[in-house]
């Protein structure tokens, strides 16, 4: 907040427009009678802003996203299909601010589909044409039943460019390219559009029935010419604007592409324009259109075809035979929203292919933003929540396996990094190459205040020497001051020069206004040139300079003046320059290496405030198991207990012998380890040790450990000793009279019991392994002998001629010899 306050109150801000562009939280007070030493541009979130300016005069434009058009998702019965919402979003952005909003997609049933069936009419496809003619109207009917009820269909055919070396130009071959095979075929052609897309299934059937097979001479076909015309000739083909555009492309051959036309001396590249021309003939419909630039323009490239498909939102379905499947699989990777499937030799599976392709294409969705139209100074990030997903996918606009009725959510975060400097288009589209719908993003930049357009010329509040703009005076030339009340003619020196400490310095050090040659300082500033302030010094515990000093910050050189005392000890500057109590009384003088409060507390005005685990004047004593170097685990005190017990057993002084293992604890031997929770006084059952135990700090920990000699166990409890504030180990005594513990020591296990079973097991396992190996070897030898005998019985010896032998005689005939004639 302090940083934002500093940004908003920058002295270089002199207008409302500059204020709102400085930071999204900066607000401008347009009230005309505001005190001149109060900054008009302030942090809107600061309490001071609301106190200094009425809400009605606060200029604070806010960023937002307004759904200008937001139609509900459509149902099956509605004529207009809506799968994306909202449709239009007005995004109002302020520099540095961010807006978030969501766009949703819902897949509807029976989405309109335009399907154009384009077929290779080379002679090798005659059985496929026969199958299509046999299907006739039922093809469209079955597609309507299995794919979508709202379907329109069109039909076209292609062969290749009627030029050598693609098609024979022999006159007879141009009339009947199938003459050599003694069949009747239609003359060759490039691409022929025979039936426009419509719901007239009878017309589609008739168009297919009127089609005759044709032929060419090379293997690749001119299908790319056909696909380009289908894509760019939208009006002639009959594509609907609100339907999915599918092209079913059937062939059994590869394709010609860009530069192949050079073989026929065609040098002009494909121009990606529509060149369909109406022709009349007995073999085609009267409405048929042909590609009339087939002999003038080269085949389109894959890149051109991709661009045309994307621009016109066309999804191709390549139904090809097995021989060329791999080629079209590669094409699929280059053309988005395309599908490849294997066509039967006679096309009898075409309906299944169309159904599968339609479902596959519709269950995936790849959206995109036209970044080329993104306005200057705008940053956009996004993420996607796909159906049945539990997490968002960052920087992704694609989803798969979208079912009917399922919904996809796209979240956008838009940030304005700068105000635009040009008047370029501020509109972007969010769409997909597989959808006819799109969402329009309309950007509006909030870079100017509403009051900036309301200018009061020669305002009385500006001494009639300037204009009132957003509550502030914009003085005419030769006038200065918050009310334009000062002129340079009334004073010999420049007014601004009198408010500078030097020629190179800023006016009033940017901390005030120069009013007729005198600095009128802003809040918290003082001095002739407003060069000093009471802010900028270190802050301790929420107080500037702590609690014992004042701040003097002149020319950006902050310094705390420590004036307070405690116990007649003056406050001093700490390592950050703030005033604090003297710390010498918080250091243990008896320890030359001591630190303040032993590093276990805080020095609060010469008194140590210890952490909960420590006490003492200097927090030097640990009063909790949590700060001990050893823990209350049995293993930590095992060595001490064994040592003490051994010393007692050997009638030695345990205090002398066990100094090292028991250096971190105190210990006590007892005949019986007491349960101190049952004690009511110092009795035989409750020795004095119980009165010194504090179970609230540490619950007694019972332990037992086997000694190395005799394997007898040592029993001991770990408790917390109140007085020493340390661990106390209560060790059960060794009975010196009997030389035994108070419980029976276990007898050692006879090693024979362990060794004999192990040896016997090894011998038995070895014998079993030998027997198994012998059985396996016998079986293997027998099987190999039987194989050998069978091979010998099957052997048959035959007589043959040496394959490398050549007869010495060879007969040659002169091909030019004409006989006896």
From TrEMBL:
Alphabetically list the UniProt keywords.
Answer: Cell adhesion, Cell membrane, Disulfide bond, EGF-like domain, Glycoprotein, Integrin, Membrane, Repeat, Transmembrane, Transmembrane helix
Q: How does it sit in the membrane?
A: Single-pass type I membrane protein
Location within or outside the cell: Cell membrane
Membrane-traversing stretches = 752-773
Instruction: Give the principal location in a single coarse category.
Output: membrane
Please give a single GO biological process term from the UniProt record.
Answer: integrin-mediated signaling pathway
Q: Which residues form the Integrin beta subunit VWA domain?
A: 15-449
Question: What domain of life does the native source organism fall in?
Answer: Eukaryota
Similarity comment text for this entry:
Belongs to the integrin beta chain family.
Q: PANTHER family from the xrefs?
A: INTEGRIN BETA SUBUNIT, INTEGRIN BETA-PS
Q: What is this protein called?
A: Integrin beta
- Identify the species of origin: Ciona savignyi (Pacific transparent sea squirt)
């Amino acid at each position: 907040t302090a940083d934002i306050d500093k940004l908003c109150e920058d002295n270089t801000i002199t207008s409302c427009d500059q204020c709102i562009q400085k930071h999204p939280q900066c607000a401008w007070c347009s009230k005309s009678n505001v005190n001149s030493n109060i900054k008009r541009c302030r942090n809107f979130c600061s309490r001071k802003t609301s106190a200094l300016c009425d809400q009605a005069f606060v200029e604070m434009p806010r960023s937002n996203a307004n759904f200008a058009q937001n139609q509900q998702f459509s149902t099956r019965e509605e004529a207009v299909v809506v799968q994306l919402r909202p449709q239009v979003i007005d995004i109002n952005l302020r520099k540095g601010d961010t807006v978030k909003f969501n766009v949703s997609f819902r897949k509807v049933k029976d989405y309109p589909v335009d399907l154009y069936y384009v077929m290779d009419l080379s002679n090798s496809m005659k059985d496929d044409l026969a199958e299509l003619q046999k299907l006739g109207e039922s093809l469209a009917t079955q597609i309507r039943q299995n794919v979508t009820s709202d379907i329109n269909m069109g039909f076209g055919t292609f062969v290749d460019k009627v030029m050598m070396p693609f098609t024979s130009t022999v006159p007879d071959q141009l009339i009947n390219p199938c003459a050599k095979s003694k069949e009747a075929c239609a003359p060759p052609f490039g691409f022929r559009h025979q039936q426009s897309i419509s719901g007239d299934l009878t017309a589609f059937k008739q168009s297919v029935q009127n089609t005759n097979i044709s032929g060419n001479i090379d293997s690749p076909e001119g299908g790319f010419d056909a696909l380009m015309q289908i894509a760019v000739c939208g009006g002639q083909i009959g594509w609907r604007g609100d339907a999915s555009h599918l092209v079913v492309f059937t062939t059994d051959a590869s394709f010609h592409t860009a530069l192949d036309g050079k073989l026929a001396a065609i040098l002009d590249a494909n121009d990606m324009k529509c060149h369909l021309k109406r022709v009349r003939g007995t073999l085609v419909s009267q409405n048929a259109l042909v590609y009339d630039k087939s002999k003038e323009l080269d085949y389109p490239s894959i890149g051109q075809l991709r661009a045309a498909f994307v621009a016109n939102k066309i999804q191709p379905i390549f139904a090809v035979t097995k021989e060329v499947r791999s080629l079209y699989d590669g094409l699929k990777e280059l053309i988005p929203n395309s599908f490849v499937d294997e066509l039967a030799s006679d096309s009898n599976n075409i309906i299944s292919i169309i159904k599968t392709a339609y479902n596959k294409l519709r269950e995936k969705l790849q959206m995109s933003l036209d970044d080329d139209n993104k306005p200057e100074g705008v940053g956009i990030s996004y993420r996607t929540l796909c159906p049945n997903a539990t997490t968002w996918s960052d920087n992704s606009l694609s989803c798969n396996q979208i079912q009917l009725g399922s919904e996809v959510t796209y979240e956008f975060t838009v940030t304005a990094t700068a105000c635009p400097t040009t008047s370029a288009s501020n509109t972007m589209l969010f769409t997909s190459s597989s959808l006819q719908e799109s969402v329009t993003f309309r950007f509006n930049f909030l870079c100017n205040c509403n009051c900036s357009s309301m200018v009061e010329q020669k305002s009385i509040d500006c001494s009639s020497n300037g204009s009132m703009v957003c509550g502030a005076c914009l003085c005419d030339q030769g006038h200065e001051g918050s009310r334009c009340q000062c002129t340079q003619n009334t004073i010999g020196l420049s007014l601004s020069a009198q408010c500078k400490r030097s020629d190179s310095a800023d006016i009033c050090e940017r901390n005030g206004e120069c009013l007729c040659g005198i600095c009128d300082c802003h809040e918290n500033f003082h001095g002739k040139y407003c060069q000093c302030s009471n802010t900028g010094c270190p802050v301790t515990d929420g107080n500037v300079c702590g609690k014992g000093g004042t701040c003097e910050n002149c020319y950006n050189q902050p310094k705390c003046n420590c004036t307070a005392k405690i116990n007649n000890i003056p406050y001093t500057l700490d390592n950050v320059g703030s005033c604090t109590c003297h710390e010498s009384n918080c250091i243990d003088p008896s320890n030359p290496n001591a630190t303040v409060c032993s590093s276990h507390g805080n020095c609060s005005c010469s008194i140590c405030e210890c952490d909960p685990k420590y006490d003492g004047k200097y927090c030097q004593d640990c009063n909790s198991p949590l700060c001990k170097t050893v823990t209350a685990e049995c293993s930590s005190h095992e060595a001490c207990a064994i040592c003490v017990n051994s010393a007692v057993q050997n009638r030695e002084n345990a205090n002398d012998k066990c100094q090292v293992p028991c250096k971190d604890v105190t210990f006590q031997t007892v005949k019986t380890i007491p349960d101190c929770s049952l004690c009511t006084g110092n009795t035989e059952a409750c020795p004095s040790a119980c009165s010194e135990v504090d179970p609230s700090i540490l619950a007694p920990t019972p332990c037992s450990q086997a000694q190395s000699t005799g394997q007898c166990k040592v029993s001991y409890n770990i408790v917390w000793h109140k007085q020493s504030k340390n661990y106390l180990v209560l060790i059960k005594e060794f009975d010196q009279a009997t030389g035994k513990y108070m419980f029976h020591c276990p007898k050692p296990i006879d090693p024979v019991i362990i060794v004999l079973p192990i040896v016997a097991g090894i011998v038995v396992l070895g014998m079993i392994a030998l027997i198994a190996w012998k059985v396996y070897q016998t079986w293997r030898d027998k099987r190999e002998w039987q194989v050998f005998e069978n091979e010998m019985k099957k052997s048959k010896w035959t007589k043959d001629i040496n394959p490398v032998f050549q007869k010495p005689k060879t007969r040659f005939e002169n091909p030019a010899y004409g006989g006896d004639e």
